[in-house]
Specification:
331 residues, alpha/beta, seven-stranded mixed sheet, Mce/MlaD
Protein backbone atom coordinates (compact mmCIF):
# COMPACT_ATOMS: atom_id res chain seq x y z
CA UNK A 1 0.00 0.00 0.00
CA UNK A 2 1.35 3.37 -0.99
CA UNK A 3 1.60 6.20 1.54
CA UNK A 4 -0.28 9.48 1.17
CA UNK A 5 2.91 11.25 0.08
CA UNK A 6 3.15 8.91 -2.92
CA UNK A 7 -0.46 9.53 -4.02
CA UNK A 8 -1.75 12.30 -6.28
CA UNK A 9 -2.51 15.36 -4.07
CA UNK A 10 -5.28 16.51 -6.42
CA UNK A 11 -7.12 13.20 -6.05
CA UNK A 12 -6.68 13.30 -2.26
CA UNK A 13 -8.01 16.88 -2.14
CA UNK A 14 -11.09 16.02 -4.21
CA UNK A 15 -11.85 12.89 -2.17
CA UNK A 16 -11.32 14.76 1.11
CA UNK A 17 -13.62 17.59 0.02
CA UNK A 18 -16.36 15.12 -0.98
CA UNK A 19 -16.06 13.29 2.35
CA UNK A 20 -16.21 16.55 4.37
CA UNK A 21 -19.25 17.70 2.35
CA UNK A 22 -20.99 14.37 2.95
CA UNK A 23 -20.30 14.52 6.69
CA UNK A 24 -21.55 18.12 6.87
CA UNK A 25 -24.72 17.23 4.95
CA UNK A 26 -25.32 14.28 7.27
CA UNK A 27 -24.82 16.46 10.36
CA UNK A 28 -27.07 19.33 9.28
CA UNK A 29 -29.69 17.22 7.51
CA UNK A 30 -29.74 14.04 9.55
CA UNK A 31 -33.47 14.47 10.21
CA UNK A 32 -34.16 13.97 6.49
CA UNK A 33 -32.19 10.74 6.27
CA UNK A 34 -34.42 7.68 5.69
CA UNK A 35 -33.01 5.48 8.48
CA UNK A 36 -31.61 7.74 11.19
CA UNK A 37 -33.88 10.69 10.46
CA UNK A 38 -36.42 12.33 12.74
CA UNK A 39 -39.46 10.35 11.57
CA UNK A 40 -41.87 10.12 8.63
CA UNK A 41 -42.90 13.16 6.62
CA UNK A 42 -46.59 13.63 5.81
CA UNK A 43 -48.64 16.36 4.15
CA UNK A 44 -52.10 17.77 4.76
CA UNK A 45 -54.34 20.15 2.81
CA UNK A 46 -56.07 23.07 4.56
CA UNK A 47 -58.40 25.80 3.36
CA UNK A 48 -56.13 28.39 5.05
CA UNK A 49 -52.91 28.48 7.08
CA UNK A 50 -54.61 30.08 10.13
CA UNK A 51 -51.27 31.32 11.47
CA UNK A 52 -49.51 27.94 11.37
CA UNK A 53 -45.77 28.33 10.68
CA UNK A 54 -42.80 25.97 10.42
CA UNK A 55 -41.42 24.71 13.77
CA UNK A 56 -44.91 24.60 15.31
CA UNK A 57 -45.64 21.42 17.25
CA UNK A 58 -47.49 18.36 15.96
CA UNK A 59 -49.46 16.61 18.71
CA UNK A 60 -51.39 13.39 19.10
CA UNK A 61 -53.68 13.24 22.15
CA UNK A 62 -51.88 16.29 23.56
CA UNK A 63 -48.38 14.77 23.29
CA UNK A 64 -45.77 16.25 20.96
CA UNK A 65 -44.83 13.75 18.25
CA UNK A 66 -43.21 16.02 15.67
CA UNK A 67 -43.18 19.48 14.13
CA UNK A 68 -44.30 21.37 11.06
CA UNK A 69 -41.53 21.66 8.47
CA UNK A 70 -43.18 23.72 5.72
CA UNK A 71 -46.35 25.71 4.98
CA UNK A 72 -46.93 26.56 1.34
CA UNK A 73 -49.63 27.42 -1.17
CA UNK A 74 -50.84 24.69 -3.55
CA UNK A 75 -53.29 26.24 -6.05
CA UNK A 76 -56.43 27.15 -4.05
CA UNK A 77 -55.40 25.53 -0.78
CA UNK A 78 -52.57 25.44 1.74
CA UNK A 79 -50.26 22.43 1.84
CA UNK A 80 -48.73 21.76 5.26
CA UNK A 81 -45.74 19.43 5.48
CA UNK A 82 -44.95 17.91 8.88
CA UNK A 83 -42.72 15.24 10.35
CA UNK A 84 -43.98 12.62 12.84
CA UNK A 85 -41.90 10.17 14.88
CA UNK A 86 -42.94 7.36 17.25
CA UNK A 87 -46.62 7.73 16.34
CA UNK A 88 -48.95 5.81 14.02
CA UNK A 89 -50.89 7.75 11.39
CA UNK A 90 -53.86 5.92 9.86
CA UNK A 91 -55.33 6.24 6.38
CA UNK A 92 -58.42 8.05 7.76
CA UNK A 93 -56.51 10.38 10.08
CA UNK A 94 -57.94 13.88 10.55
CA UNK A 95 -55.81 16.97 11.08
CA UNK A 96 -56.79 20.17 12.82
CA UNK A 97 -55.00 23.47 13.41
CA UNK A 98 -55.60 24.43 17.03
CA UNK A 99 -54.78 27.42 19.17
CA UNK A 100 -52.00 26.62 21.64
CA UNK A 101 -52.13 29.83 23.70
CA UNK A 102 -54.45 32.79 24.08
CA UNK A 103 -51.81 34.88 22.32
CA UNK A 104 -52.47 33.14 19.02
CA UNK A 105 -49.74 30.49 18.84
CA UNK A 106 -50.88 27.39 16.92
CA UNK A 107 -50.13 23.67 16.71
CA UNK A 108 -51.22 20.82 14.45
CA UNK A 109 -53.39 18.17 16.13
CA UNK A 110 -53.72 14.70 14.59
CA UNK A 111 -56.47 12.16 15.29
CA UNK A 112 -55.10 8.85 13.95
CA UNK A 113 -57.84 6.49 12.72
CA UNK A 114 -58.09 3.91 9.97
CA UNK A 115 -57.32 0.32 9.15
CA UNK A 116 -53.98 0.91 7.43
CA UNK A 117 -51.19 3.45 7.63
CA UNK A 118 -51.31 6.78 5.84
CA UNK A 119 -49.33 6.88 2.60
CA UNK A 120 -46.65 9.63 3.03
CA UNK A 121 -46.92 10.44 -0.69
CA UNK A 122 -50.68 11.09 -0.45
CA UNK A 123 -51.65 14.24 1.48
CA UNK A 124 -54.50 14.24 3.97
CA UNK A 125 -57.36 15.68 1.90
CA UNK A 126 -59.20 18.91 2.60
CA UNK A 127 -62.29 16.98 3.75
CA UNK A 128 -60.41 15.64 6.79
CA UNK A 129 -58.82 18.92 7.94
CA UNK A 130 -60.21 21.89 9.89
CA UNK A 131 -58.91 25.33 10.86
CA UNK A 132 -59.68 27.39 13.99
CA UNK A 133 -61.40 30.74 14.34
CA UNK A 134 -58.77 33.35 15.23
CA UNK A 135 -60.17 36.04 17.55
CA UNK A 136 -57.12 38.29 17.10
CA UNK A 137 -57.50 38.33 13.33
CA UNK A 138 -61.21 39.02 13.70
CA UNK A 139 -60.54 42.07 15.88
CA UNK A 140 -57.97 43.36 13.40
CA UNK A 141 -60.45 42.95 10.55
CA UNK A 142 -63.20 44.61 12.56
CA UNK A 143 -60.98 47.60 13.28
CA UNK A 144 -60.12 48.00 9.60
CA UNK A 145 -63.76 47.63 8.51
CA UNK A 146 -65.03 50.09 11.13
CA UNK A 147 -62.52 52.71 10.02
CA UNK A 148 -63.77 52.42 6.43
CA UNK A 149 -67.48 52.92 7.29
CA UNK A 150 -68.94 56.36 6.56
CA UNK A 151 -71.10 56.68 9.65
CA UNK A 152 -72.71 59.95 8.52
CA UNK A 153 -73.81 58.38 5.23
CA UNK A 154 -75.09 55.33 7.09
CA UNK A 155 -77.15 57.54 9.42
CA UNK A 156 -78.66 59.44 6.47
CA UNK A 157 -79.54 56.15 4.80
CA UNK A 158 -81.36 54.89 7.88
CA UNK A 159 -83.23 58.22 8.24
CA UNK A 160 -84.28 58.10 4.59
CA UNK A 161 -85.58 54.55 5.02
CA UNK A 162 -87.51 55.62 8.12
CA UNK A 163 -89.11 58.56 6.28
CA UNK A 164 -89.94 56.40 3.27
CA UNK A 165 -91.79 53.84 5.38
CA UNK A 166 -93.55 56.47 7.51
CA UNK A 167 -97.00 55.31 6.32
CA UNK A 168 -96.22 51.63 6.82
CA UNK A 169 -97.77 49.49 9.59
CA UNK A 170 -96.88 50.36 13.16
CA UNK A 171 -94.45 47.48 13.75
CA UNK A 172 -92.51 48.35 10.56
CA UNK A 173 -92.27 52.03 11.58
CA UNK A 174 -91.14 51.00 15.07
CA UNK A 175 -88.35 48.81 13.64
CA UNK A 176 -87.19 51.58 11.29
CA UNK A 177 -87.30 54.16 14.08
CA UNK A 178 -85.09 51.84 16.13
CA UNK A 179 -82.67 51.51 13.22
CA UNK A 180 -82.58 55.27 12.86
CA UNK A 181 -81.86 55.72 16.59
CA UNK A 182 -79.15 53.07 16.34
CA UNK A 183 -77.53 54.84 13.41
CA UNK A 184 -77.54 58.17 15.30
CA UNK A 185 -75.97 56.49 18.30
CA UNK A 186 -73.26 54.90 16.17
CA UNK A 187 -72.58 58.20 14.42
CA UNK A 188 -72.30 60.06 17.72
CA UNK A 189 -69.91 57.43 19.11
CA UNK A 190 -67.82 57.06 15.98
CA UNK A 191 -64.62 58.49 17.51
CA UNK A 192 -64.99 56.43 20.70
CA UNK A 193 -65.62 53.21 18.75
CA UNK A 194 -62.62 53.85 16.51
CA UNK A 195 -60.43 54.51 19.55
CA UNK A 196 -61.75 51.37 21.26
CA UNK A 197 -61.04 49.18 18.26
CA UNK A 198 -57.62 50.78 17.82
CA UNK A 199 -56.74 50.07 21.44
CA UNK A 200 -57.95 46.48 21.05
CA UNK A 201 -55.67 46.11 18.04
CA UNK A 202 -52.73 47.56 20.01
CA UNK A 203 -53.36 45.20 22.94
CA UNK A 204 -53.60 42.15 20.69
CA UNK A 205 -50.38 43.12 18.89
CA UNK A 206 -48.58 43.66 22.21
CA UNK A 207 -49.71 40.29 23.54
CA UNK A 208 -48.70 38.59 20.30
CA UNK A 209 -45.21 40.15 20.45
CA UNK A 210 -44.83 39.03 24.09
CA UNK A 211 -45.98 35.46 23.54
CA UNK A 212 -42.53 34.04 24.34
CA UNK A 213 -42.38 35.86 27.70
CA UNK A 214 -45.88 34.69 28.62
CA UNK A 215 -45.02 31.13 27.65
CA UNK A 216 -41.86 31.21 29.79
CA UNK A 217 -43.88 32.65 32.68
CA UNK A 218 -46.43 29.87 32.39
CA UNK A 219 -43.67 27.24 32.10
CA UNK A 220 -41.92 28.64 35.21
CA UNK A 221 -45.20 28.58 37.11
CA UNK A 222 -45.71 24.99 36.01
CA UNK A 223 -42.23 24.09 37.28
CA UNK A 224 -42.99 25.74 40.63
CA UNK A 225 -46.27 23.88 41.02
CA UNK A 226 -44.59 20.62 40.00
CA UNK A 227 -41.85 21.11 42.60
CA UNK A 228 -44.44 21.93 45.27
CA UNK A 229 -46.31 18.78 44.30
CA UNK A 230 -43.09 16.76 44.65
CA UNK A 231 -42.43 18.35 48.05
CA UNK A 232 -46.01 17.86 49.20
CA UNK A 233 -45.12 14.89 51.39
CA UNK A 234 -42.23 16.76 53.05
CA UNK A 235 -44.38 19.85 53.65
CA UNK A 236 -47.14 17.68 55.10
CA UNK A 237 -44.61 15.98 57.39
CA UNK A 238 -43.26 19.37 58.50
CA UNK A 239 -46.71 20.69 59.36
CA UNK A 240 -47.65 17.45 61.13
CA UNK A 241 -44.42 17.56 63.15
CA UNK A 242 -45.02 21.18 64.11
CA UNK A 243 -48.52 20.27 65.28
CA UNK A 244 -47.19 17.39 67.38
CA UNK A 245 -44.47 19.63 68.87
CA UNK A 246 -47.08 22.21 69.87
CA UNK A 247 -49.16 19.46 71.45
CA UNK A 248 -46.16 18.15 73.43
CA UNK A 249 -45.21 21.65 74.63
CA UNK A 250 -48.78 22.31 75.71
CA UNK A 251 -48.82 19.02 77.60
CA UNK A 252 -45.45 19.78 79.21
CA UNK A 253 -46.66 23.17 80.42
CA UNK A 254 -49.93 21.69 81.69
CA UNK A 255 -48.15 18.86 83.56
CA UNK A 256 -45.57 21.16 85.23
CA UNK A 257 -47.76 24.16 85.88
CA UNK A 258 -47.47 23.76 89.68
CA UNK A 259 -43.66 23.82 89.48
CA UNK A 260 -43.39 26.44 86.74
CA UNK A 261 -45.65 28.99 88.45
CA UNK A 262 -43.50 29.36 91.65
CA UNK A 263 -40.30 29.36 89.59
CA UNK A 264 -41.60 32.12 87.33
CA UNK A 265 -42.80 34.07 90.36
CA UNK A 266 -39.35 33.85 92.01
CA UNK A 267 -37.70 34.81 88.74
CA UNK A 268 -39.93 37.86 88.60
CA UNK A 269 -38.89 38.76 92.19
CA UNK A 270 -35.20 38.45 91.31
CA UNK A 271 -35.56 40.63 88.24
CA UNK A 272 -37.47 43.21 90.28
CA UNK A 273 -34.68 43.36 92.89
CA UNK A 274 -32.01 43.65 90.20
CA UNK A 275 -33.94 46.39 88.46
CA UNK A 276 -34.33 48.28 91.75
CA UNK A 277 -30.57 48.10 92.49
CA UNK A 278 -29.40 48.90 89.00
CA UNK A 279 -27.63 52.08 90.14
CA UNK A 280 -25.79 50.22 92.95
CA UNK A 281 -24.71 47.51 90.52
CA UNK A 282 -23.35 50.11 88.11
CA UNK A 283 -21.42 51.84 90.91
CA UNK A 284 -20.04 48.51 92.18
CA UNK A 285 -18.81 47.61 88.69
CA UNK A 286 -17.10 51.00 88.37
CA UNK A 287 -15.30 50.55 91.72
CA UNK A 288 -14.38 46.95 90.98
CA UNK A 289 -12.55 48.01 87.83
CA UNK A 290 -9.60 49.83 89.51
CA UNK A 291 -9.38 47.23 92.30
CA UNK A 292 -8.98 44.31 89.91
CA UNK A 293 -6.52 46.33 87.80
CA UNK A 294 -4.25 46.88 90.88
CA UNK A 295 -4.52 43.21 91.88
CA UNK A 296 -3.55 42.22 88.36
CA UNK A 297 -0.56 44.56 88.37
CA UNK A 298 0.64 43.22 91.75
CA UNK A 299 0.40 39.58 90.80
CA UNK A 300 1.23 39.90 87.13
CA UNK A 301 5.04 39.67 87.29
CA UNK A 302 5.36 36.06 88.36
CA UNK A 303 4.52 33.67 91.15
CA UNK A 304 4.76 36.38 93.84
CA UNK A 305 3.10 39.62 94.87
CA UNK A 306 4.80 43.02 94.43
CA UNK A 307 3.94 45.33 97.36
CA UNK A 308 5.39 48.25 99.45
CA UNK A 309 5.39 48.57 103.25
CA UNK A 310 5.66 52.20 104.33
CA UNK A 311 7.55 52.98 107.63
CA UNK A 312 8.96 49.51 108.19
CA UNK A 313 12.51 50.91 108.87
CA UNK A 314 13.72 54.18 110.35
CA UNK A 315 15.01 55.63 107.13
CA UNK A 316 11.70 55.19 105.44
CA UNK A 317 9.30 56.76 107.92
CA UNK A 318 8.82 60.18 106.43
CA UNK A 319 7.67 60.94 103.94
CA UNK A 320 5.75 57.67 103.74
CA UNK A 321 5.75 57.07 100.04
CA UNK A 322 7.27 54.53 97.69
CA UNK A 323 10.88 55.32 96.76
CA UNK A 324 11.44 56.75 93.35
CA UNK A 325 14.19 55.61 91.00
CA UNK A 326 17.57 56.74 92.32
CA UNK A 327 16.37 57.18 95.92
CA UNK A 328 17.31 54.88 98.85
CA UNK A 329 14.75 52.97 100.86
CA UNK A 330 13.74 49.61 102.17
CA UNK A 331 10.91 47.27 101.45
Amino acid sequence: MRSFRERNPITLGVVGTVVIAAVAAAVFGYEDLPIVGGGTTYRAEFSEAAGLVPANEVRVAGIKVGEVTDVGLAEDRVLVTFRVSDAWVGDRTTAEIKIKTLLGQKFLALHPVGEAGQDPDVPIPLERTTTPYDVTTAFEGLATTAEAIDTEQLARSFRTMSETFADSPRHVRTALDGLSALSRTIASRDAELAELLGNAHTISATLASSSDEFRRLIDDGNLLLTELDHRRTAIHGLLTGAERLATQISGLVADNRDQLAPALAQLDTVTTILRRHTADLDRGLKLAGPYFRLVTNAAGNGRWIDTYLCGLVDGNRAPCRPPRPGEGGGS
